[in-house]
Write a structure and sequence with these properties.
Helix content: 25-40%
CATH topology of the largest domain: Elongation Factor Tu (Ef-tu), domain 3
Largest sheet: 6 strands, antiparallel, barrel
Shape: elongated
Number of strands: 21
Strand order of the largest sheet: 2-10-14-12-11-15
CATH architecture of the largest domain: Beta Barrel
CATH superfamily of the largest domain: Efflux pump adaptor protein, beta barrel domain
Structural class: alpha+beta
Distance between the termini: 66 Å
Number of domains: 3
CATH class of the largest domain: Mainly Beta
């Protein structure tokens, strides 16, 4: 019995200790002491929200030259990397065979014209004889048929000569756009077949990116809207402008989207095919007071932040908020530059609290927006 009573006494003492410890912890957390909350500081900066898309760089203008006959290139007048303007002579092919064809076509057309003149003269003679009863109706009709046949021969001979002239003209190929000869695929006097790639001319001064805009995001994207272009492969950020938005949707997997074109600022480092992240700004607040979004709470009366008051007691302070990018939020009224506010737990952006505690002018400050294609508004940390 004594051992059992002793165990009850020990158990009772442990229970009392636990209750006292719990009460102490509860009191500490509700007293607003520094151990329960983390401070961050308000500072001035720009907040930008945007829609994000992904695409590949392409040229607005390009000429892909292909062989239009089986004749080899006799001579190139340009080389890779050379700048050309529209109308410049690019190359000529061996024209001996085509020249012979053209000469024969001209001879044939001349012969057809001679035959027509003779047939017409004969018809006029037969018509005169018919009028005085010197020939039959059948002879007159035969003479007329000869004229018609001669006219048809002229038509065919003219078409053949035009074709030969076009082929002869095509022995000299000219630039249709201004740009740079980016690639030459064949050598002089190399055997070719119709459709063989000869060269590419690219206008690198006018590059663009085509993006897909979801139908629900279409209202936020307008022609003339400024865009930021990020080329991660080159570590570059460029400016651009939305130049065109399709008026007809394309549908993929039941989802409608519209193709839009973003024109890039000129940059000699850009290359066709590079991946580009496009950010189109939807809202922007410049040089405004900001705090982490985790510092702002809401109740029935509106938004507020928590601050340390006298004796390190936590107090609520009403604020008026503006836009936010998912990590930082604009404070229009209630907090000043450099004021300390309290964060509870981990910031909603998923960033450790120490990374969010940035003094004005110190350290790397988070940028607004982020994320990948699809056209949805980007939130910080995505």
């Amino acid at each position: 019995m004594k051992k059992k009573s002793k165990k009850k006494i020990i158990f009772g003492l442990l229970t009392v200790v636990i209750i006292i410890l719990a009460a102490f912890i509860f009191t500490r957390f509700n007293s607003g002491e520094a151990n329960a909350m983390t401070e961050a500081f308000a500072f001035r900066q720009d907040i930008v929200t945007h829609y994000s898309f992904t695409g590949n760089i392409k040229a607005h203008d390009a000429q892909y030259v292909q062989a239009i006959s089986n004749e080899p290139v006799k001579k190139f007048y340009v080389k890779e990397g050379q700048k050309v303007v529209a109308g410049d002579l690019l190359y000529e092919v061996d024209s001996n065979t085509i020249q012979s064809t053209l000469t024969q076509a001209r001879t044939n057309l001349s012969g057809a014209n001679t035959e027509y003149d003779a047939a017409l003269l004969n018809y006029e003679r037969i018509q005169s004889l018919f009028d005085i009863g010197g020939v039959s109706q059948q002879e007159l009709e035969n003479a007329k048929k000869s004229v018609t046949s001669a006219q048809n021969q002229i038509t065919q001979a003219t078409a053949n000569m035009q074709q030969a002239q076009n082929q002869y003209q095509d022995t000299r190929r000219f630039a249709e756009i201004s740009g740079e000869v980016s690639k030459i695929y064949v050598n002089e006097n190399q055997s070719l077949s119709m459709g063989t790639n000869i060269m590419d001319i690219i206008d690198y001064d006018n590059l663009e990116v085509e993006i897909k805009v979801d139908e629900y995001d279409l209202s936020a994207i307008t022609v003339g809207k400024e865009a930021e272009i990020i080329i991660e492969a080159l570590g570059k950020r460029l400016t651009g402008t939305v130049s065109e938005i399709a008026r007809e949707a394309s549908i993929e997997s039941g989802v409608s989207y519209f193709k839009a074109t973003v024109v890039l600022a000129e940059d000699s480092d850009l290359r066709i095919g590079l991946t580009a992240d496009i950010r189109i700004i939807t809202q922007k607040a410049e040089n405004v007071i900001t705090v982490p979004v985790a510092a702002v709470s809401y109740d029935f009366s509106g938004a507020y932040v928590q601050v340390y008051g006298q004796d390190r007691k936590i107090e609520q302070k009403a604020v008026i908020v503006g836009i936010n990018d998912g990590r930082l939020i604009e404070i229009k009224e209630g907090v000043f530059d450099g004021d300390a506010v309290l964060l509870s737990g981990v910031a909603s952006s998923g960033m450790p609290q120490r990374q969010m505690m940035v003094m004005p002018g110190g350290g790397a400050r988070p940028e607004g927006g982020g994320g990948s294609g699809g056209g949805r508004p980007m939130q910080g940390g995505e």
